[in-house]
Fold this protein.
Amino acid sequence: MEIQVIGVQGLPLIQKGDDLPALICDRVAFEDGDILAIASSVYSKAAGFTRELASITPGADAVRIAAKTKEDPRFVQAVLDSSADILLEHPFILSELPSGHIGVRAGVDHSNVEDGRLIILPPDPMGAAVGVRDAVRRITGKDVRVLITDTCGRPFRRGQTGIAIGWAGMTAIDDYRGDTDLFGHVLEITEEAVVDEIAAFANFVMGESHQGVPAVVFRNCKTWNGHDSVYFTPQEDIIRAALKKNKKD
């Protein structure tokens, strides 16, 4: 069957307290096995994961880093507050979040939100995906897979792309190790990050500016077997090790 990609149209500007799953279900006739991708920004707005810039008092570290990045120290403080570890301070802040996600400025954003307000990534994106999935099942009776997406840059390449920071109803990785290719060769290292591939296409449909499509439905996608170990451990991550070494030097 052909895969269908459906942008969810007609959603209002989301505010704190809005029932986002219900609003989406009003506009989509879900089928079992659908994959619903939701932009983390709109999820955070509904859940109240925002901060008022005027309410933030920057500390000494925020002031010091802001002098290097040329950013508002209050914004930098919001980034530090959302971070579990800072891997790079300049020319931009690269930080690890408590969820394990690593991103520029901890994913703190001031686009697609009212002036003077910051959007914070969901502190528990996996739990967010589970909650949306349960809500869709309760409302529609359908078994839907869910992704919470964010937009990130990539090492060695220009431009941003969508990635998954939370998922439910599927594994992050389609693990081909032990399978064979067309010529019978045993695959030893192939692990496909399917949730990121879907999130990237969802981001293409959502757009990055004024398109107003914060949710996308994928229909007729296959199921797969794998695991959820999408993040390298600190011992495996050679980029993290190099950044840490450079920071010390």
Observations:
- The mean pLDDT is 92.
- The CA atoms of residues 21 and 135 lie 6 Å apart.
